[in-house]
Design goal:
Helices cover 40% and strands 19% of the residues. The chain is an alpha/beta fold and 308 residues long. Bound molecules: zinc ion.
């Protein structure tokens, strides 16, 4: 088989690409997502991609709770899907075999096949972006659970009654260690923080203090930003400890914007993980994702290839 199309439909952008058997992207189309028309955004990107070449199958990763194998979006906190029957809508439009997954599941598979998890059969992926997503590879296969909803690590509760999460609950892992959580922590402490690049970069507008802005300040050496990343990394380590106790993985791959903060976020997480597992077991390797923002699209394409 030649080329397969992969799609990564996130809260802010949709990426569609033609991917070969080795996980290499040979052509790509990227657009901002229409927040009120997630499915139409996917169809538009694919239509544009197929103007030059038609693939053998289409694999899609969406940032949502998505049923398997139905490909139906049941809950999407950041994006409205104008047609929740995403799989059926794509199949009807293009007449090709289609598979639709959660985006972090697709990214986990991409990293396992072609990235930081090559050769590993027990792997977890934790994507630390605005939110926290997850994917499970067990026995060398993607683990989807009963309905396709497995791996929603971001919504395990760490603190009952804690900070509000995007899902509506409180104290989720995502509310303590995501990009959004880093932004919240930085805003909360900003008043008392003294001189910091976080204030300078935001122009004094606390609404502009995001996880990405804090990461930028931290990379520039700002002490306050580094303190915030260390605090988030501590919570990340607590969440990872829970996952290690449940899944006993060989490798945990960290993706999303959190991976690009490198050791500033991940080293405190590794320290917390090692501290909590001390005397019981060796901690698994915590590796940065190797495929960057392309993991989802590459994984989605490969899953579609395997399904054909
Ligand atoms: Zn939540």
């Amino acid at each position: 088989m030649s080329l397969v199309a992969g799609v990564d439909s996130g809260g802010t952008k949709v990426l569609a690409a033609l991917v070969d058997e080795e996980g290499r992207i040979v052509d790509r189309v990227e657009h901002p997502t229409d927040p009120r028309a997630g499915t139409a955004s996917i169809l538009r990107a694919l239509g544009e991609l197929f103007e030059k070449e038609s693939p053998a199958a289409i694999g899609v990763g969406v940032a949502a709770w998505v049923g398997w194998p139905s490909g139906r979006v049941v809950f999407a906190p950041n994006l409205f899907y104008d047609d929740p029957e995403v799989k059926e809508a794509i199949r009807r439009r293009f007449g090709l075999p289609v598979s639709v997954e959660n985006d972090a599941n697709a990214a986990a598979w991409g990293e396992c096949r072609f990235g930081a998890g090559v050769g590993v059969s027990e792997m977890l992926m934790v994507t630390v972006g605005t939110g926290i997503g997850g994917g499970i590879v067990s026995g060398g296969k993607l683990y989807r659970g009963r309905n396709g909803y497995a791996g929603e690590f971001g919504h395990m509760t760490l603190i009952e009654g804690g900070p509000r999460c995007a899902c509506g609950e409180r104290g989720c892992f995502e509310a303590m260690a995501s990009g959004a959580a880093i932004g919240r922590m930085a805003r909360e402490g900003l008043h008392a923080a003294g001189s910091t690049a976080v204030r300078e970069l935001s122009g004094g507008d606390s609404e502009r203090v995001t996880g990405a802005l804090v990461a930028e300040a931290a990379e520039g050496g700002d002490a306050y930003a580094r303190l915030i990343l260390r605090r988030a990394g501590h919570w990340l380590g607590i969440g990872l400890t829970n996952l290690v106790n449940i899944f006993d993985p060989e490798v945990i791959v960290i993706g999303g914007g959190g991976a690009s903060s490198g050791g500033l976020l991940l080293d405190p997480a590794r320290e917390e993980l090692a501290r909590r597992l001390e005397g019981r077991r060796e901690p698994p390797r915590v590796a940065e994702a190797a495929l960057g923002n392309d993991a989802g699209v590459i994984g989605a394409a490969d899953l579609a290839r395997l399904a054909v």
